Amino acid sequence: MILKTLAAAVLLAAPACGYAQAKPAITRHANTPPGLILQSVTVPPGMTTLYLSGQLASPVDPASKTPPAQMTMADFGDTKTQTVSIFNKIKTILTSKGYTMADIVKLTVFVAGDPKLGGKMDFAGMNEGFKMFFGTPENPNTVARSTIQVAALAGPNFLVEIEAAAVK
């Protein structure tokens, strides 16, 4: 019994004495040559992962009195505008859970074809919005990411939906 008590005391005191084991870090594997997104990410055991459901853009004018059923694509903006709106929404969700944008390791981005582009997705516009949140002075990290063109999203006015996984 004395040995068990002594062992427990040593384990409890170790962190206070500077003997705590360092937590392994997330490894972000860059593409060769380095690019906008990562090739992959290694998450070591013991980390906590937060998965965010797909997020859609908010109306450009949050004070708009237009009923949701009467809103048009113009009420939500182009691909870049919707991407920025979604990342701001993701940032708010992460903050409420104790995470930051730098904790994101994986994104799945669904982009619908833009009628103004003949039904093709605006990949450049999505990337412009992406670059405002990743590889910046505020968040120098980037992520593993898939970007998929889809026929349509949950509503006819949405051009982008983004899922995220954050780890810390």
Overall description:
The chain is of the alpha+beta class. It has one domain (23-167): 2-Layer Sandwich (60s Ribosomal Protein L30, Chain: A). The protein is built from three helices and six strands, in the order H-E-E-E-H-E-H-E-E. Helix 2 runs parallel beside helix 3. The chain is globular. The model is unreliable at 3-12 (pLDDT under 50).
Q: Would you kindly provide a brief summary of this structure?
A:
Strand 4, helix 3 and strand 5 form a beta-alpha-beta unit. This protein has a 4-stranded mixed β-sheet, with helices on one face. Strands 1-2 form a two-stranded antiparallel ribbon. It has 168 residues and is of the alpha+beta class.
| Largest sheet entry | 4 strands, mixed
Report the oligomer: single chain
Low-confidence stretches: 3-12
Strand content: 15-25%
Number of structural units classed as domains: 1
Instruction: Identify the strand order in the major beta sheet.
Output: 3-6-4-5
Mean of residue pLDDT? 90
Strand tally, please?
A: 6
- The rounded distance between the terminal residues' Cα atoms is 37 Å
Features:
168 residues, alpha+beta, 60s Ribosomal Protein L30, Chain: A, four-stranded mixed sheet, two-stranded antiparallel ribbon, 3 helices
